[in-house]
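We emphasize that the prediction below concerns an isolated chain of 261 residues; any contacts that depend on oligomerization or on bound cofactors are therefore not represented. The input was used exactly as deposited, without trimming of termini.
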Amino acid sequence: MKELKDTQNEIDPRGVPIKRVGVRALRFPVRIRDKQDAVQHTVATVSLAVDLPHQYKGTHMSRFVETLNQHGPELSVRDLRAIPNELLTRLDAERAHVEFSFAYFVEKKAPVTGAPGMVDYEVTFTIDATKDEMDFVLTVAVPVATLCPCSKAISERGAHNQRGIVTYSVRFGDPIWIEDLIRLVEQSASCELYAALKRPDEKAVTETAYDNPVFVEDLVRNVAVRSQGDENIKWFRVEAENFESIHNHNAFAEVEWTRGE
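Result of the prediction step, given as a token string:
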């Protein structure tokens, strides 16, 4: 068989290195162990990339998919940590970038009746790696309820409230549970959200939010203080966005912090 030309390995004369090149929007089954020592089976949306030196015309896109699939029909977290090093070797790269985003489910019982329901959270594992170092960031997107302190203070009847989303990213020392990060965020809001609520539960949730008003600024500060109190968290970035119920815009706030700085 005639040898096929390898265009990707040709020299590129423009002298422009590429920060990231690879594949994204690739879906793949994964297994995640939860805090109850059970295994969740979910589907991740995957991004795989490497840095491309200026002298190479292109990378070998098929090798990204081959690297992913060589672990079999389903990945575990341990497999995921191995992928960046395999990309560095297979693509002769100096730096690899891996991202897995997936739905993670937690069973929550309603606060009064105990009615069970599954609440989904978006979780992302992001890994940047060289041959000598690996940087792992865990991100959780947590839906919450917030009630406006200003509205409560100036209104004779009620106060406006809304759902929001908190995107919380951490670097950590010892292994950390996704559930613990979710709980930290939910405790920082006016009230947490549930999948199933009966009337007694709805009353309790409404009153809990009313008793715990927070601005979007309060929300990120609450998360920040709790994070700073956990010695295992080495760095975090938290962004809260409220889907305003009486404005035609959203409100947001963000805090980033590194331990020791």
